[in-house]
Amino acid sequence: MRRRSGRRPGKPDTRGAILEAARETFAERGYDGSSIRHIATSAGVDPALVHHYFGSKEDLFLEVVKPPIEPGAVMDEIFAEGIEAVPENVVRAFLGTCEGPVSGPAFLGLLRGAVAHEWQALLLREFFTTQIARRVVRRLGAVVDPAELPLRASLVSSQLFGLAMVRYVLRIPPLAGASEEVVVAAVAPNIRRYMIGDLSPEERKAD
Hints:
With 207 residues, the chain is mainly alpha-helical.
């Protein structure tokens, strides 16, 4: 049997039990509300064994979700041209993921699974919110109020997941066949507002 480099061999059922416990915990409690200790307790193992097999909580979460992209690399791509280009780069990176020969089928498989199964929807939501949208907004630093980060992250998620459903799953024309430039030009302004724009409702002016 081939062994993973840098890890001692262990019982397959132990690793599987940890993954199952992590899947249930992340789906029920979300990423922020989950802990290695709680996952270990649910799996009936010591927390040190969870770290041994999977490393950090983030590593374990990514192993559960198995996303088609590496979040850190995507962040570098999005911020490569400075903050002003971030909204457009977010849309381009998202389209690239959805249309990639490997990442595309993998991501759309996750999306379809999320539509069919609640636990998959919860995991996909947590992945996109904590690993992508929240990272993007946090990198904006002092540009936005930290208290607004959860709302901004969820708004970005709503825009991009809606785009994916209409363009790639439901394939509603003409958006389904629109060019990348058309989609970026149409969607990026919304992403810009959600990330760094004013979210306060406008006060009605008295007549």
